[in-house]
Amino acid sequence: MIVGIDLGTTNSLVGVYQDGQVKLIPNAFGEYLTPSVVALDDNDEIIVGKIAKERLVTHPDKTVSQFKRFMGTKHELTLGNRAYKAEELSSFIIRKLVDDAETYLGEKVEEVIVSVPAYFNDAQRYATKLAGKFAGVQIDRIINEPSAAALAKRSMVNQEDQSFIVVDFGGGTLDISVVELFDNIVEIVSIAGDNRLGGEDFTAAIAEEFLVSNQLTKDTISREFYGKILVQAEKTKLELNEKEEVKMTVLDQEQEYTLDLSYQRFYELCQPLLARVKAVLDRALMDARYSYVSSDNFVLVGGTSKLRLVQDFLSYCINQVVQVSDDPDRMIARGCALLAGIKERQGEIRDLLLSDICPFTLGIEIIGDRFSPIIERNSTLPASRIEQYYTAELGQSQVKIKVYQGEMMKASQNLFLGELEVPVPVNTRVNESFTVRFTYDLNGILDVEVKIDSTQEVFSHVILQDSVTLTEKEIKAKQAELTRYKINAQETEVYRFLIEKANRVYSMLLGRRRDELMAETRRFEEEVSQASVYHLPKLYQSFSNYLDFLERGL
Ligand code: ADP
Ligand code: MG
């Protein structure tokens, strides 16, 4: 059996193609979204998903989230007293989703198709495959997220028009892609994004307003207090989808702080964020040479697309009503599951992208930390371009060519890829000129060639995407290590989640209400330990209702 996984920064999903249709698979909580959060519990066991997310507030040192941002890098995140790379953490998520799928389907999962952002480079794609290996499943096929969303959309609406503007607005990133579909070919015409813009920023904007209006600053309050403000800000953000005015309240040290926030004021506060959304949209459309777009072409995916504010703003930008259609959280997973089905039937879909266009600009640093682009983003690959440069000073004996990838004006703000030093003939009368040729191929290998114009001498240097190459033996060792950790079993998940939630709610309550919660929790634990399996759901439900009731009162 092949399953499709949307391995998201904030949430992940798994789906399968069965009986001629896409089926998304619920987790132990009956939910499709599993938070991409990993935690270490008090027995040093790995916990994944919703329970781990509850512990973000209560055990920040033993919980990690948002690690997808570090895929393919050497950056490590600490969990308790051990450091993990993003691909190791991701392997726990994959393992959990595969377990859920196997439990649900009663079949073994042999292969997994995973989606990745279109701009993921080779190292990041490789890391994703490695995460699969660590989790003990095969990932032969990776699909680009916008391609998956477009495939899912096409299958749902049967639309004639085969061009899509996929707006994927998640927890921490915004990606807008123009995607065209013809038969079994998906062509990503352009991609643009802001990897520092997401739902969390809208939440942070509310938190900031809350601080300002209560004359507080982030640096002078406790981490715990700020954590509580963020939780309430998130709630307020969601409530503003339906209400025109929301009262936000946070308790800290027996004191109550409040903020009355209107939708209008929220819109104002978010102007700087919305301007960045516009910039990304414009860039995607300009690169695709689209001058007119219809709201029918829009595919809104990701949780933040559900923000009324975002839909209102996009509508304002194109002067037509843009709405989330179906399932914005699940479109990518649906596309992955669809592809799993196609692959099982031995079909193929060609997903034209990274292999075919270069999603970022490649260039070198010139004097004054300026960035000089050589291969521009969205160039068709393989690409080979030349630019001519001059030595900066008379009598210079060598030049240093520093190669960067990115879209920033300042070289140092882009991603440094490598450098080479080239001797130049010492010339005290005129500046020597030299030509730099970049050749970038389908495998992500950048060949840098420098030719001194006066002597025709050529120097070259090959830059490989800095991929982590591990030997089979190292992979086996990692797998063994990771299987040492037990991942939370499904049967007890709901129970453990409720206990963690009780802890979090407890941390937000005060005085008498705390004592009450503690007593209730004790009683719940006792009842569960004595109850028969058949009575558990009822016990869980009533304790869960009680916690929700307390939380609403916060
Ligand atoms: P990612 O792609 O990063 O894994 P998601 O697409 O799941 O993330 O989006 C998560 C974000 O969506 C969070 O910031 C959350 O606040 C936001 N979100 C979820 N539901 C809604 C909603 N109904 N309205 C507004 N924002 C929402
Ligand atoms: Mg996403």
From TrEMBL:
Belongs to the heat shock protein 70 family. It comes from Streptococcus oralis subsp. oralis. It comes from the Bacteria. Keywords: ATP-binding, Chaperone, Nucleotide-binding, Phosphoprotein, Stress response. This is Chaperone protein DnaK. Acts as a chaperone. Transmembrane segments: none annotated. It holds the Pfam family HSP70. PANTHER family: HEAT SHOCK PROTEIN 70KDA (PTHR19375). One of its GO terms (molecular function) is ATP-dependent protein folding chaperone.
